[in-house]
Amino acid sequence: MQNTVAPHVLAALARLGAATIYEAQGARGALDSGIKPIASTMRIAGPAFTVDTRPADNLMLHYAMLKARPGDVLVVDAKGYTEAGPWGDVFTEQALKMGLAGLVINGAVRDAASITETGFPVFSRGLSIKGTGKNQPGQVNVPITIGDVRIHPGDIIVGDQDGLVVVSRDEVETVLRQSLEREEKESEYRARIRNGATTVELLGLADQLRRFNLA
C-alpha cells in the first residue's frame, strides 16, 4: 500500500498520541489493551500493510516482506495466538533495511531484548520463545479484524505506551484537526488547574454530583 499521508501529518499524529486521537475521533478505533509495545518508549505511526496469517505459522510474513513499502506498518492478525513467536530479530533486521515504520501483531514475538536495542517499534499481545511453521497460506493487503476493530489496508495506525488506535485513511486530516483542538482544550484545562480550578468546575459536574447527594 502506497503511503499517501504526508510525513508531517504522521509525525503530528505520533506526537499527539493514541489516547488523544481515540477521544478526538469519537472514542473509536482503539485496539484492545492486550496489545502493547514491547518497550514503553516505542511509538508508531504509519499506514497499515495488513497480513492475515494462521496461528504458529509465519509463511505469510515472509511473503509480506516482499510486498511492503518503506513507511508501512505491518499489521498482522495471528488470531491472538501467543504460544509461538512468528517475528524475531531476523525479521526486525530486514524491516529496518526496508524502512518499515513498525509491527503490530495480534499474537506474540520473540527476541524482545534484541528488537528493543534496534529501536524498531513492535506492538504485540505477548512474548513466546516457541518457533513457527512455514506451511500455511494466508492473505496480505486485505481487511482484517482485531477484536472489534476493522482495519483496512492504508488505514493509519498510531501507537504508544498507552495502546493503539486506527484512523480511517479517509478521515486522517479531519482527525488530526480534531486531535489538535482536543490537545489545545486539555492544555487550557491544565493551565486553569494550576490557577486553582477543579475538574468538577471544568467539566460541569456539580449538578451530577448533587444528584447522588455528593455535593
TrEMBL record:
InterPro entries registered for this protein in UniProt: RraA/RraA-like, RraA/RraA-like_sf
Binding site for substrate: 110
Keywords annotated in UniProt: Magnesium, Metal-binding
Cofactor(s) demanded: a divalent metal cation; Mg(2+)
Domain of life: Bacteria
Annotated positions binding Mg(2+): 111
GO molecular function (one): metal ion binding
Alphabetical list of Gene3D superfamilies matching this protein: Ribonuclease E inhibitor RraA/RraA-like
Entry protein name: Putative 4-hydroxy-4-methyl-2-oxoglutarate aldolase
Species name: Pseudoduganella rivuli
